Amino acid sequence: MSEAQRKRRTTGSPLVARSSTKTSRRVSARRAANDTSIIVREVVDLTCEGSECAVVDLTSNDSVLRSTVTTAESYVVSSDEDDNAAPVLKTSVVSLHDNSVFRPTPGTISCPVCLDSYCEIVDSGRLVVSTKCGHVFCSQCLRDALTSSHTCPTCRKRLTHRQYHPLYI
């Protein structure tokens, strides 16, 4: 191949083709940008298991509080209005820490992995199981944990599938 042929090839049609490819890339990029603004987004709820789903409105404050309210004394520690003012006594404010109604009841059984209560575990067909180390889980969460890590999810003690048993309450 001669030097003249090499020059013709490098200065010939490949440059024209290269610039036309760049222009076509720009055009296709613009079309893609315009097409993305036309896309309609549809929300699909994949959490529903049956044909009827319970809809929970989290935007309104219609939660029911237990009516056993005891009057507790509370002082305002800091105020935006006046830094030199004396502490104000508010009797209508109830401290959640002082009221044992809002604390989890001792003796209730729940799975610390999925946070389901005893009733939710039993109603869904799962068993309440206890490990050799004494921790309580639902059967599905413990089975999955032992499959992946072979340890207790609470204390990380080494466990096998033979080292837990169902609890019948």
Automatic annotation (TrEMBL):
InterPro entries: RING-HC_RNF4, RNF4, Znf_RING, Znf_RING/FYVE/PHD, Znf_RING_CS
GO MF assignments: zinc ion binding
CDD domains the record matches: RING-HC_RNF4
PROSITE patterns hit by this protein: ZF_RING_1, ZF_RING_2
Span list, region Disordered: 1-29
Keyword field: Metal-binding, Zinc, Zinc-finger
Designated name of the protein: Ring finger protein 4
Native source species: Takifugu rubripes (Japanese pufferfish)
Lineage: Eukaryota, Metazoa, Chordata, Craniata, Vertebrata
Protein's gene: LOC101073495
